[in-house]
Amino acid sequence: MLVETNGVRLNCVVEGPEGAPWITLSHALANNLTLWDDVAASLKDRFRVLRYDHRGHGQSPPVPGPYTFPMLIDDVLGLWDKLGVEKSHWVGLSIGGMIGYGLAIEHPQRMLSLTACDSRPDAPPDYAAYFQHRIDLARQKGMEGVVEPTIERWFTPETRAKNPPVLDKVREMIRTTTPVGHEGCCEALKTLAFGPRLHLIRVPTLILGGAKDKGAPPEALSEAAAKIPGAEHAIIPDAGHITALENPQGFREALDAFLAKH
């Protein structure tokens, strides 16, 4: 369904029993809510599961950019308000986890817990430059030109060699992301700067990431977790950036163990 809030329309899906604790799943750049199909299926017996498409992604129509993290955070707050979500667990991958950092810092009263997956908190110069490269590439070659370079960056050589069906799922998510939505979120990612405020997070937090993630390597996530009081850090073996799809069992085991405590 499309929910209008914050000047945009956001596509979302709600599953699970009414009255159960809410859990919100937020996808990566150039993905959409179908990233979470299997995860949502594993959670919807215990939680009221909300998935949504970022502006300009999936079935959410694009609006002109650039986007900012305050803007993306307001999208979530508006969506929660429209759906009557007072508090929610948060599970976000890549930009979805970064939005989670901002929510936990600025709106802890709305958070039951934070799980940030493959989400570094800051954008050093080389990281910011990568997103400008993505913008330039998409302008030159369209979203199709972004597909294979992204697959190479996101997934391990071992998985790419096997080329399982999940890679085609990700390829299709990338190519169907609107160029406007992709560029708008890339502009937000160039400004990523939650690191200096991570110590303000007081909600239960799990930071997890793939052992072979190029964009959010384990050492960067370990440093981030160390800044958050009581935060846990989990490394998912045999996975790069899209841990929920590359090692789904390892991902769900780490997530379930954390949620069971909270």
3D structure, described in words:
- With 262 residues, the chain is α/β, with parallel strands linked by helices.
- It is built from eleven helices and eight strands.
- Strands 1-2-4-3-5-6-7-8 form an eight-stranded mixed sheet, with helices on both faces.
- Strand 5 (88-93), helix 3 and strand 6 (111-117) form a beta-alpha-beta unit.
- Helix 5 packs across helix 7 (165-175).
- The chain starts with a strand and ends with a helix.
Largest sheet: 8 strands, mixed
* Rg calculated over all Cα atoms: 17 Å
* Weakly predicted, low-confidence segments: none
What is the structural class?
alpha/beta
Layout of helices and strands:
Blueprint: E1 2-5, E2 8-15, E3 22-26, H1 37-43, E4 48-52, H2 69-83, E5 88-93, H3 95-106, E6 111-117, H4 125-141, H5 144-154, H6 157-162, H7 165-175, H8 179-190, E7 205-210, H9 218-227, E8 232-236, H10 243-246, H11 248-261
Parallel strand pairs: 3-4, 3-5, 5-6, 6-7, 7-8
Antiparallel strand pairs: 1-2, 2-4
Which properties best describe this structure?
single chain, 262 residues, alpha/beta, Rossmann fold, 8-stranded mixed β-sheet, 8 strands, 18% strand, globular
Gist?
This protein is α/β, with parallel strands linked by helices and 262 residues long. The chain has 11 helices and 8 strands. It has a single domain, classed as Alpha/Beta hydrolase fold, catalytic domain (Rossmann fold, 3-Layer(aba) Sandwich), CATH 3.40.50.1820.
